[in-house]
Amino acid sequence: MNQSNDELILGADIGGTHFRMGLCDASGKLLAHQVLPTATLASAQEGFTKLADILDPTKKAKSFVVGVPGVVDYRESKAIFAPNLPQNFIPELSGEKIAKLLGREVLLVNDADLAAIGEAHFGAGRTKESMSYVTISTGIGAAVTVDKKLIRTRYSIAELGHSFIDASDALANGRGSVEYLASGTALARTAKEAGLSLTNQQLVVAAQAGEPNALLIVKEMAHNVGVALANMVHLFSIESLVLGGGVILSGDFIFNLVEESFQELKPSYLEVEVAKAELGDDAALRGCAAAIAAFTSPSG
Questions:
Q1: pLDDT digits (tens, 9 = 90+) for 232-263
Q2: DSSP three-state, residue 194
Q3: Per the database entry, which stretches of residues form a coiled coil (predicted)?
Q4: E strands, 58-110, where?
Q5: Using CA of residue 207, residue 134, residue 116, residue 10, what is the dihedral sign?
């Protein structure tokens, strides 16, 4: 899969909540984009065909980069684990099947990997030697870049959301995992268990206003994120953390609590900058512009 400077790239960022697609150029500029609620789609194929027909009906973009929220087998170009998607989507998330469906060359990439590439090339990590991108949304994902190059093996790495921070619950259906304790889904579940009939946004507003139960829930969630981020830094000794996803990008309140917790727990011998994703929800879509080169160059 080769890429010229004037080439258009069609990209998809599939999430548990939103199914996004966009058209960008090789410089990372997002020219157009569309969003559908994931729950309204009967299949991933429906989302691909609907949005591709809207964004690029004449197939000017020859390449299609697809971001998947789960583990990707890069050798086989397929998703092998994506618990936050409808499970009937998984067999459809294959580079070969999508290529046949849309008549384009397809690159399948973990969504956090794709967003990390976007932030490393065009966003908050563009001046950093080493960076970890972490998304806190429906689920939690992470990726690591060094000199703008993605760290990976045959599989996408840094599945932070499925690592454990509570050993006592590690075998209880994943209840001790980062995702169970620190995601947007966790925030909603904990509020419901506390008898609060609030959306996540309403919960954060209540916490900011000092409502005791809401504040306790939000602080605990933010602390758990801080623990997870400290673990990432202990493992990879990175100089920059770039945080994205709906929970973090919704405002400064949770971001500030997360950073405070992280700074208390991080390795004392490292200076680590924590920043919000500059590209926001478009990080993965804009990452499509640099992903093709990243996955075809010998050092990528």
A1: 999 999 999 999 999 999 899 999 999 999 99
A2: coil
A3: none
A4: 63-68, 71-73, 78-81, 105-110
A5: negative
For residue 109, give the nearest of 25, 232, 14, 26 by alpha carbon: 14
Those residues whose C-beta lies under 8 Å from the C-beta of residue 91, and which sit 6 or more positions away, are: 97
Helix (H, G, I), strand (E, B) or coil at 72: strand
Please, how many CA atoms are within 13 Å of residue 173, restricted to the half-sphere of its CB?
0
**Residue 281: what residue type?**
D
DSSP character at residue 62? -
Q: Tell me, what's the pLDDT at 6?
A: 67
- Written as one string, the DSSP assignment of 99-166 is HHHHTSEEEEEEHHHHHHHHHHHHSTTTT-SEEEEEEESSSEEEEEEETTEEP--SB----GGGSBS-
Q: Name 155's bridge partners.
A: 73
What does the alpha-carbon distance between residue 87 and residue 236 come to, in Å, rounded to a whole number? 32
Q: Do you know the residue count of the chain? A: 300
Q: Which two tokens stand for residue 20?
A: 């996004």
Whole-structure pTM value: 0.93
Domains and CATH numbers, the chain: 8-114+281-296 (3.30.420.40), 127-278 (3.30.420.40)
Alpha-carbon gap, residue 74 to 295, rounded angstroms: 9
